[in-house]
Amino acid sequence: MPQLNRDIFVRVVLLLGFIILLFSIITTSQLTLYVHPRVTSLIKISGYILFMMFLRQCWNLKKAWNQSVCGSHSHRTYWKYSPFVLTLLIAFILPNSSLNASLVNNKGLNSQISNEVSNREYRPLADELRQTNFIKVSDQNFLGVMSEINRYPKEYAGKEIEMKGFIFKGSATSPNRFSLVRYVIGCCVADASPYGLLCEIKDAANYTDGNWYQIQGIIETNEYQGKEFPIIKITWVKQIDALFSPYVFP
């Protein structure tokens, strides 16, 4: 009498689970919560590969059934699938969410792109920013603007700036100050780095870590231990919903 090969059946179920998980992430446009947009095509290709593997295991299951292969495997052999089962359970149970302010302390707030870039004096936005009195920060110019203002604050002192981000205060921040931050992702969420600017406003204590705001203000400079740094004196602020795409992708 034909019997179900349980080992192959478990593989079929696991592959189906990963296909459903990947399909749900792609169709709900949540893939960029995990990886840079430039690698999303590779993730989609992996979905097709998983589907081919699923079809292959379905064929093996049907073949084993027709050949009356008995699924008399020891229950101990199924423990080898436990990491995959655990991964699926965590993925389906825990909600998808973006990185928040609580991780900024662990990663450290960045003020420059990298030492390599700094040493080469790579300044693609310098001419454009010098010629305007109003700097509007967008996803496209975010990293360049952060690098310019943090490295050369004197050149932009007195200019007005508008930007969006979430609030990060940190234990060392003065009572009337906070940083407005965005995460920058080079490849995947594991290498996300927080970048932002220090802001000053009288009622800073009323603003909560992690909440998103759009601000306008004037760039000024301060000095700490002989080194100048920029600070935005906020003139207008508005709380906003977290951006649909909260990360910046250079």
Description:
With 250 residues, the chain is α/β, with parallel strands linked by helices. The radius of gyration is 25 Å and the shape is elongated. About 3% of the residues have low confidence. It has 2 domains: 88 residues; 148 residues, Nucleic acid-binding proteins (OB fold (Dihydrolipoamide Acetyltransferase, E2P), Beta Barrel). It has a 5-stranded mixed beta barrel with strand order 2-3-4-6-5. The N and C termini lie far apart (60 Å). It has 8 helices and 7 strands. 17% of the residues are buried. A hairpin with a 2-residue loop joins strand 5 and strand 6. Helix 1 packs antiparallel against helix 2.
Please name the fourth-level CATH homologous superfamily of the largest domain: Nucleic acid-binding proteins
How much is the average pLDDT?
85
Give me the CATH architecture of the largest domain, please. Beta Barrel
- Assembly of the depicted chains: single chain
Strand content: 15-25%
Number of helices: 8
Order of strands in the sheet with most strands: 2-3-4-6-5
Shape field: elongated
Compressed to H and E, one letter per element, the order equals HHHHHHEHHEEEEEE
Low-confidence stretches: 112-119
Count the beta strands.
Answer: 7
According to CATH, what is the class of the largest domain? Mainly Beta
| Structural class computed from helices and strand pairing | alpha/beta
What is the C-alpha radius of gyration, as a whole number of Å? 25 Å
